[in-house]
Amino acid sequence: MIENPAAQTECSKIEANSSQKSDIKTILFSAFSFQLLAEVPGAPAVGTENGSDLCQNPSRSLNIVIAGGGTGGHLFPGIAIAQEFEARNAANRIIFISTGNPLERSVLSRMDYTLQTITAAGIKGLGLWNQVKSGAKIPKGILQANRILKNFSPDLTIGLGSYSAGPVVFAAWLRRIPIVVHEQNILPGITNRILSRFANRIYISFENTRSHMDPQKVHWTGNPVRQDILDSAGRFKDTETDESVDRPFTVLIVGGSQGAHRINMAVIEALDHLRHLEHLHFIHQTGQADEQPVREAYRRSKVGGTVQAFFDNMAGQYGRADLIICRAGATTVAEVTALGKAAIFIPFPFAADNHQVLNAGSLSDEGAAEMLIEKDLSGKILSEKIAYYAAHPAELENMSAKALQFGKPDAAKNIVDDCYRLLAA
Whole-angstrom Cα distance, residue 56 to residue 424? Predict the structure, then answer.
């Protein structure tokens, strides 16, 4: 996850040709029209005219739109859902619609998914003028999304909750295409709070989210995890040998798809406090900006470390880890719990509505993880925690077992099952 909210906005949007000389009344309406439309009571239900056909021929292929992305926390659950739809029927056609930032383009291209782009920008947390400019892009995004939907003729639109999902879901509502949305965090974001009014189904990752959404639409499914991540635990166990007891204690550090500067610096400091480094190995995803200084810190400390800006094969890294030090984005929490891994969560302090603290707290309160607030983070404290868990494997195993109880490895299956039921209704 991107560490700076302003940087997150810049990295997640594409340029739009909007003039500051536009009529101010029109701009102001554009800025808030989407929110106002969401307040209209009794919005018409989305039609399911194709449902009877699906009942008669459940094996027919479907066209699926997955809307939203921006960060890995939104994108990767969408990929997990896409993989499950493909597993059901190889003829199912899936496209992603978002703003097309570098992460989305790179990941989706590597996985051979089609990405269609629209104009969209975030609104929350910006100054008034920037909110007005972002809101002015909404009508253009809706028109672009409408053209894509018209050409693709989807059977279903799935919203992932990022701001780029808004125009797509609204266009789908206008075209009377069935809509489902997925909320990754305990506290729903502003986009999903709006889009939930248009959706036929709302899928949630945490049971506590029920109180924030329409209970008649809500299904507690869990947060989808990519199949290669789910397979990693079994693959790693299959490769273990009798000599594996002599392998070093392995710590995976991951701050999200863009890294976490504050965590990176704390780890560099922690290396100076740790002892018996020959028994430790670190796998460290740094993000692009910090890769070189972190790599140099490991070299100076003469400690084993695999350092990269970004790991394409996170499944393998999870499989090797004895302890994970990470942010508390919903996708990371879902992956950690689905695999039953011990983790120290360091929530991003500027996450919207403090949702990362809520995500991590749901586990730490039950002894299924440890939470360290960033203001209390230091290299010395981090080194003490690493040394403690390396020396107390029984406590590590207990935490792992409790984490596994929170896991929902069948989340993607649960969602796709219900999507088929919705379309057949």
Answer: 9
Dist CA 78 CA 69 (whole Å)? 8
Structure confidence at residue 257 as a pLDDT band (50, 70, 90): low
Name the CATH superfamily, with its identifier, for domain 228-405: Glycogen Phosphorylase B; (3.40.50.2000)
What span, in angstroms and rounded, lies between the C-alpha atoms of 128 and 130? Answer: 6
CA angle (94 as vertex; 88, 96 as ends), nearest 5: 140
Which position has the higher pLDDT, 312 or 356? Answer: 356
pLDDT digits (tens, 9 = 90+) for 268-315: 999 999 988 889 999 999 998 999 999 999 999 988 999 999 888 899
Amino acid at 132: V
Strands of the 63-67 sheet, one edge to the other: 114-117, 93-98, 63-67, 156-159, 179-183, 201-204, 218-220
Write down the domain spans for the chain. Answer: 5-224+410-424, 228-405
Number of other residues whose CB lies within 10 A of the CB of residue 231: 12
Q: Which residues pair with 81 in a beta bridge?
A: none
225, 379 Cβ separation under 8 angstroms: no
CATH code at 5-224+410-424: 3.40.50.2000
In whole angstroms, what is the distance from residue 84 CA to residue 283 CA?
A: 29
Q: Helix (H, G, I), strand (E, B), or coil: what is residue 93?
A: strand
Query: Under 8 Å CB-to-CB from 423, ≥6 apart: which residues?
Result: 48, 50, 51, 54, 62, 155, 156, 178
pLDDT at residue 124, as a whole number: 64
Q: Give the single-character DSSP code of 323.
A: E
Closest CA to 202 of 191, 216, 185, 190: 216
- Fold agreement between 5-224+410-424 and 228-405: yes
Task: Compute the distance between CA of residue 338 and CA of residue 407 in angstroms, rounded to an integer.
Answer: 4
- Going 397 to 399 to 401 to 403, the CA torsion angle's sign is negative
- Torsion-angle region of residue 110: left (phi > 0), alpha (psi -120 to 50) or beta? alpha
- From the list 113, 91, 73, 357, the residue with the least C-alpha distance to 223 is 73
Q: How far apart (Å, rounded) are the C-alpha atoms in residues 192 and 166?
A: 8
Residues in a beta bridge with 338: none
Q: CA 17, CA 119: separation in Å to the nearest integer? A: 10
Residue 253: strand, helix, or coil: strand
Element (H, E) at 202: strand 201-204
Tokens representing 124? Answer: 């929350």
Q: Where is 26: in which H helix or E strand?
A: helix 24-38
